[in-house]
Design a protein that fits this description.
This is Amino acid synthesis family protein. By secondary structure, this protein is an alpha+beta fold. The protein contains three helices and seven strands. The protein has one domain: BB2672 (60s Ribosomal Protein L30, Chain: A).
Length: about 190
């Protein structure tokens, strides 16, 4: 397969100072990078599609590195997630092609991240929104880092496109206080605890 054809990239970073409690001095940063790419499988059923994952790897790594830079460097990143919105000429399985290249790209950009990268996908038209789940990069059970970021673009995906997304955060939810495993107590042995 040829390399992905990118129509546009969007990078967005938000600073969260409070969620109703006392504002914090250093805000939580949530960032997302989205690429709108041509879906080479749109319009008809294709039995063999998994080769496209390899073609997506360079795009994934480039996106991950840009997002790390936008958030201030890899030592700042504590949470991550990924997702895809497939245009209506495609199928949900085309969004699943982003699992490997998106996840490994973030792990590669961050170094030794151990936790599985949470993911979501759907089929939708231009303007569709997607809530991308986020967990801690080294331990999926760190409850303070369970989060999500809504992503989307007004003009994508068109019927023959896929929007692929990466999300990263610099810490826990602001005012996290529901208990559970804390980031400072991570053992880092299995990506869970």
């Amino acid at each position: 397969m040829p390399e992905p054809k990118v129509r546009k990239l969007l990078t967005v970073v938000e600073d969260v100072y409070h969620e109703g409690g006392t504002p914090v001095e250093t805000p939580l940063k949530r960032g997302a990078i989205l690429a709108v790419i041509e879906n080479p499988f749109a319009g008809s059923y294709h039995e063999k599609i998994d080769g496209f994952m390899k073609d997506l790897e360079p795009l994934g790594l480039s996106m991950a590195n840009k997002l790390v830079e936008a958030l201030g460097g890899r030592d700042k990143i504590e949470g991550y997630g990924k997702g895809a919105i497939v245009g209506q000429g495609g199928e949900l399985e085309h969004g699943a092609l982003w699992h490997v290249p998106g996840g490994y790209a973030m792990r590669g950009a961050l170094g030794d991240a151990k936790a599985i990268v949470p993911s979501t996908k759907k089929v939708g038209g231009p303007g569709a929104r997607l809530d991308v789940p986020v967990t801690h990069i080294n331990a999926s059970y760190v409850r303070s880092h369970f989060d999500a970021m809504e992503v989307g673009l007004a003009d994508a995906p068109r019927a023959d496109e896929i929007v692929v997304a990466l999300v990263m955060t610099t810490g826990s939810r602001i005012h996290a206080r529901v208990g559970g495993l804390r980031a400072e107590d991570i053992k880092g042995e299995d990506g869970l605890r």
